[in-house]
Automatic annotation (TrEMBL):
The keyword Membrane does not apply. GO terms for biological process: methylation. It comes from Gallionella capsiferriformans (strain ES-2) (Gallionella ferruginea capsiferriformans (strain ES-2)). The gene is ubiG. Pathway: Cofactor biosynthesis; ubiquinone biosynthesis. InterPro entries: SAM-dependent_MTases_sf (IPR029063), UbiG_MeTrfase (IPR010233). This is Ubiquinone biosynthesis O-methyltransferase. S-adenosyl-L-methionine binds at R36, G55, D76, M120. It comes from the Bacteria. It is an enzyme of class 2 (transferase). GO terms for molecular function: 2-polyprenyl-6-hydroxyphenol methylase activity; 3-demethylubiquinol 3-O-methyltransferase activity; polyprenyldihydroxybenzoate methyltransferase activity. The lineage of its organism: Bacteria, Pseudomonadati, Pseudomonadota, Betaproteobacteria, Nitrosomonadales.
Amino acid sequence: MSNADPVEIEKFSQVAHKWWDPLSEFKPLHEINPLRLNYINRHASLAGKSVLDVGCGGGILSESMAALNANVTGIDLSDKALQVAKLHLLESGRQVTYRKIAVEDMAAECPDTFDIVTCMEMLEHVPDPDSVIASCAKLVKPGGWVFFSTLNRNPKSYLLAILGAEYVLNMLPRGTHDYAKFLKPSELAQSCRNANLTVSDLSGMSYNPFSKIYSLGTDTSVNYLIACRRD
């Protein structure tokens, strides 16, 4: 628990019961999930692979990867989120293993285990993102894939991701993000290299407020994804 912010865990625990409501505070996660899923599957081909979803929350991404025949384990530190994730399996019929464990402890317990490790929308919520990145690198097999997504740190991302999304459009609850914890792509790429991960791709995720549609492209100024392979 040393690399976890209790305030952040409690923040998401309080609304965990809404995780699978596509019209709730988690609506953006539901809307971007197909993009995240396709991005991962395009690079790493999920079918038949062992996958670890770090910071799985209520299991939106975990379940969608399991639906593509991946053998998925999801880990998180929120009891309430994990309870919601486990309950939803009864409705969906998917097969996912959920555990309450820190990624650092998981890395010590079973290094070199997974074909794919995903860590989406989590790095901007932890005190030490480098520790998470290093642990993800330890957990994946040599030659395996690691995927991260997070928020860029610049005036545009502050304007859109915090002022716009949280205060103007009310897409997210106020206080969801802390701008100081946002990571520039160059910073995340360097942290990945420090963890012996080779960056294979960097893609941006953009939101059109008029069409209300998310899309992947080259604009990494706000949200972005990074695909890496372990050396």
